[in-house]
Design brief:
By secondary structure, the chain is an all-alpha fold. The chain is 72% helix and 0% strand.
Amino acid sequence: MYFALLLIVAYLIGSIPTSIIAGKVTRGIDIREHGSGNPGATNTFRVLGKKIGITVGLIDIFKGFFAVFFLPSLMPGDTFASEDIRRLSAGLAAVAGHMWTVFAGFRGGKGVGTSFGVIIGLVPLASVVTLAAWCILTFSTGYVSLGSIVAAAVLPVAIVVEGILGDGFSVPVLVVATVLALLVIFRHRSNIGRLFRGEENRFGKRGAS
């Protein structure tokens, strides 16, 4: 029972539609009706500006981090679910909430920020590697989507390499990280098509994201 409650709360935290709230509060608009229509930090950055876009992105990251780092210890425990399982499950639930938010007709963002927050809470060193990959690809090509896709693909590899060079890695963490990476890539499937067709918009320009 408590485990199910943990998942529900984590999902609801992830479901907080940060960009939609930001659009309503700051401009009185629905962010889904502007720019690419995607309720994520990148579109918020384009439509509402740098400060609001960065703020939305940081909050989305914190949603994932809070779900794995703080929430399990704040909720009652279950004898059948270990702390690691609770943390991993809460992280997945938060990302699912962001991608399919109950507060916006189960249509949410692409999960990059919230997934990154989860990874910071689970494997900090691997999160640095994925952030570096995102920065290199995004700022060298101008494509946020490409940076996000490559960073997602790098994540499981970074965890394995860190484990080989260190004291090994947790298989459940690797499985969850791989699931998150696949979800992020799947959510970018339309971007992948535009990248191949040369139709994807570069960072700083209005359009699809």
